Amino acid sequence: MDQRAQIAGIFDRAASTYDRVGVELFGPVADELVSALAPQAGERALDIGCGRGAMLLRLAAAIGPTGTAAGIDLAPQMVAAAQTDAATAGLTVDVSVGDAQEPDFPAKSFDVVASSLVLFFLPDPAAALAAWRRLLVPGGRLGVSTFGPLPPAWQEVDAVFEPCLPPQLRDARTTGTRGPFGSDAGVEQLLTQAGFQDVRTRTTTVAVRFDDADHWHRWTWSVGQRAMWEHVPAGDRDAVRAAAGERLERCRDGGGRIGFDQQVRHTYGRC
Ligand SMILES: C[S@@+](CC[C@H](N)C(=O)[O-])C[C@H]1O[C@@H](n2cnc3c(N)ncnc32)[C@H](O)[C@@H]1O
Q1: For 59-102, how does the pLDDT look when each residue is reduced to its tens digit (9 = 90+)?
Q2: What's the pTM?
Q3: Is 249 a member of any domain?
Q4: Count of domains forming the chain
Q5: Which of 6, 7, 33 gets mutated to test ligand 1 (max ligand atoms within 8 A of its CB)?
Q6: Is 198 left (phi over 0), alpha (psi -120 to 50) or beta?
Q7: How far apart are CA 17 and CA 231, in angstroms?
Q8: What is d(CA 255, CA 91) in angstroms, rounded to the nearest whole number?
Q9: Which of 118, 119, 120, 264, when mutated, tests ligand 1's pocket best, judged by the most ligand atoms within 8 Å of its CB?
């Protein structure tokens, strides 16, 4: 199966619970991007890989009915969920299935292009950024979020999946120290080479916390990490879960809650 179909399948199967299991991650990441990009009433913004709309809905609220908040995602179930969530919130969005690698919009059709926790899924991030730049008007703003490093104790939790994973999934959540996503400079260089100016990074930390090991388990099935579970043979999943449970005990914070502090790299540029 082609890589895009695999990714769409994972997120389609996750869509019904994605960002709905009581763990704060995508909202705080979107808050930072939207705050820095400062969309104005009447502007046109595009959220690339919008998922269930954590950022898209915030963009729509800022832009209001006189502008356009558009979103694309590869996974049809994510698109449907984003549409429903926007309607429930009383917001108007223009959301459709589309490929972030080469979004199908006319040149210079947006004031703001944003993408949260998506770029590292793409087969050619540099080419995608060049395509995204073409969608911006002169002076238009780009913001992308990617994952920073994980604490060592949490890397140990994720490592329980490793024996079952194909090579492309071994680097958990595509962070790590290699490649452009391993440093601020690496991501900044991607933007600079795509022709963006005034490229800069702001790093934030999101405290990701779980009530208990069961809560962690539900969350992992609701996000991209679901791909890891799907690679574990059904008969081995209880053992992997038990091994993770032991390691989770080493990841309690001062208040006794299980979790990790996720560094998030927000990289900004101007067209
Ligand atoms: C980690 S989720 C982030 C979703 C959303 N931006 C958020 O912050 O909640 C990654 C999203 O990227 C989408 N995605 C991955 N590859 C894509 C592609 N080539 N084109 C469009 N969307 C893609 C997935 O379907 C998924 O919804």
Answers
A1: 999 999 999 999 999 999 999 999 999 999 999 999 999 999 99
A2: 0.95
A3: no
A4: 1
A5: 7
A6: left
A7: 19
A8: 37
A9: 118
Structure token pair of residue 94:
């223009």
The three-class DSSP label of residue 138 is strand
DSSP state of 252: B
User: For the domain that residue 15 is a member of, what is the CATH number?
Assistant: 3.40.50.150
Domain with 182, as residue range(s), is 3-148+174-207+262-270
Residue 244 domain flag: no
Alpha carbon of 73 to ligand 1 centroid (Å): 6
258 lines ligand 1 (CB under 6 A): no
**Is residue 175 pLDDT above 70, yes or no?**
no
Burial of 22 per CB tally in 10 Å (0-12, 13-18, 19+): exposed
Query: Would you give the distance in Å from CA 46 to the centre of its chain?
Result: 15
Would you say 13 and 214 are in contact if contact means Cβ atoms under 8 Å apart? no
φ, ψ for residue 215 (rounded to 5)? -65, -45
The mean pLDDT of 194-218, rounded to a whole number, is 97
In a domain, 91, yes or no: yes
Would you say 221 and 229 are in contact if contact means Cβ atoms under 8 Å apart? yes
Give domain status of residue 80, yes or no.
yes
Distance (Å, whole) CA 18 – CA 81: 10
Mean residue pLDDT across the chain = 94
